Amino acid sequence: MTRLLVTGGAGFIGSAVTDALLARGADVVVLDSFRSDVHGGDAHGRDAHGEPVGSAVVDGRVRLVTGDVRDPDALADALEGVDAVCHQAAKVGLGVDFSDAPDYVSSNVLATADLLAAMTAHGIGRLVLASSMVVYGEGAYRGPAGRERPLARRVEDLDAGVFDPRGADGAPLEPALVTEDDAVDPRNVYAVTKLAQEQLASSWCRATGGVAIALRYHNVYGPGMPQNTPYAGVASLFRSAIERGEAPRVFEDGAQRRDFVHVRDVAEANTAALDQASTRPAGAFRAYNIGSGAVHTIGDLARALSRANGGAEPVVTGEYRLGDVRHITASSERAAAELGWQARIGFDEGVAEFATAPLRPAVA
Q1: How would DSSP label each residue in 35-100?
Q2: Exposure string (b/e) for 259-289, b if CB count within 10 Å is 16 or more?
Q3: Regarding beta strands 211-217 and 285-290, do their DSSP bridges make them parallel or antiparallel, or are they unpaired?
Q4: pTM value?
Q5: Which of 60, 111, 150, 323 has its CB surrounded by the most CB atoms within 10 Å?
């Protein structure tokens, strides 16, 4: 039986990956630090009564190693007898402010370097890496002459409620689906660290002959998301507001385009990538967009969650954050062609489930 290590395997996405691997009969090891800003509760994911919270409840079939990827002893223990690694552990989201930067770099970049070095020492040559759409910055756009990178959005335009990016001629651009061949342009510390993880993995492949697949997740949602914290996704922020009796607050005009992909579909993408990694030639590195293939807006999501929960109509505030991207939606054609993977859970079905699904209590 294949033994697989899932780092961060008790987290939101990691626990779904673990479940999918167990369903396939894999022997799974989970390495997780149970940090409180992800899981809630104390350092071991326990509430005030000593009970596990959220996805800190790990399936009894899993061998659980409690520790940080940066802890050499915990990492060596977790890698014992492992055939491949699925690296989900990371500090996610935009954080609070730039003071979070050292923790992002250490948690994401240093931890990945430590993992790759330890994999090399243990003779493990297959890696699936959780990457992110944030490596692209803005999504893809078309102008009069074809695909075009947008100019940076100007404060005076945003203040005037003109939110869509403009091209070199000053005219608005038409949003398109981003592909893996589009240029990367990370625009915040988290994005920089996700791209750095990919680059480390690619360097490891060249140096060791290992095989790595990076999955660029788009907007992942589903049961077990963290609640209202600076690190939570927009889906859980909206839901948490509705449950407090508040109207979801939607920035800009609510027309920001996104690709919302269900966490169980993301888990299946990981299993497909692990299968493919075993067939790739030595030294191969490849990145894939992992999205639903359907375009919805931030406003669509807020309205759908309000309807499902009988909540107040969302409030479109016109507020903006200067570093936010306007539109980013995925072409997942490469994943379909090469991994044999496509998302199966549609937006309406997934949001209806998510509207009442349990969330993980989290502490900022």
Answers
A1: -HHHH-SSTTSB-TTS-B-GGG---TTSEEEES-TT-HHHHHHHHTT-SEEEE-----S--SSGGG
A2: bbbbbbbbbbbbbbbbebbeebeebbbbbbb
A3: parallel
A4: 0.93
A5: 111
